[in-house]
Design brief:
Helix content is about 15%, strand content about 35%. The chain is mainly β. The protein has a five-stranded mixed beta sheet, with no helix packed on it. A three-stranded antiparallel beta sheet has the order 1-2-5, with no helix packed on it.
Length: about 140
C-alpha cells in the first residue's frame, strides 16, 4: 500500500520514454543507487539503472508500443519504445525478478541524490559472485 511504502521511506517516481508513449511509476528511495555496467550492450546504450522489485513498478501505458531485444543467455529483456527507441526500464539478467530503471527517464522532482556504482559486466559471472547485495535489490522491501 501507499502508506506502507511511504513509511518505508520510498517515494513514487514517474517517468517514461522520450515521445511519451511509454509511462510508468516506480516506488523507490529518493536516494538512488545506480549501476554503471560496462558489458557490451550497456556500454553501447549507456544503460545506467537502479534495480527495484517488480511489485514496486507499474507500467501505466505503452505496453503495445514496446518491443524487446535479447541476446546471449536471453535472461535480460531489453524493452524499449518502438517510436522513439528509448529504453526507460528493462529486466536485468542479474535480477530477472525485478526491473532496472533508467534514472534519466524519471520526471523531475522526486530524486534527492544519485550514487553511481561501476559494475564490471565484461566479467559478469565473476562480478555477480563478488557483489553481495545486487540480487537482493529486486526483493520487495515490505510484505504488503
Amino acid at each position: 500500500s501507499v502508506v506502507c511504502r511511504e513509511r518505508d521511506g520510498l517515494v513514487k517516481h514517474t517517468g517514461g520514454c522520450h515521445c511519451g508513449a511509454v509511462r510508468f511509476e516506480v516506488w523507490s528511495a529518493p536516494d538512488l543507487h545506480v549501476f554503471n555496467c560496462n558489458c557490451s550492450i550497456c556500454t553501447k546504450k549507456q544503460n545506467r539503472h537502479f534495480i527495484v522489485p517488480k511489485s514496486q513498478f507499474t507500467l501505466l501505458q505503452g505496453s503495445d508500443n514496446m518491443t524487446t531485444y535479447t541476446f546471449n543467455t536471453h535472461m535480460a529483456k531489453h524493452t524499449f519504445c518502438k517510436t522513439c527507441g528509448v529504453q526507460s526500464f528493462y529486466t536485468p539478467r542479474s535480477n530477472p525478478d525485478g526491473f532496472g530503471v533508467a534514472p534519466h527517464c524519471l520526471d523531475t522532482g522526486t530524486v534527492k541524490s544519485v550514487t553511481v556504482e561501476d559494475f564490471c559486466g565484461q566479467n559478469w559471472e565473476e562480478s555477480m559472485q563478488k557483489h553481495h547485495t545486487i540480487r537482493s535489490m529486486s526483493k520487495p522491501t515490505t510484505d504488503t
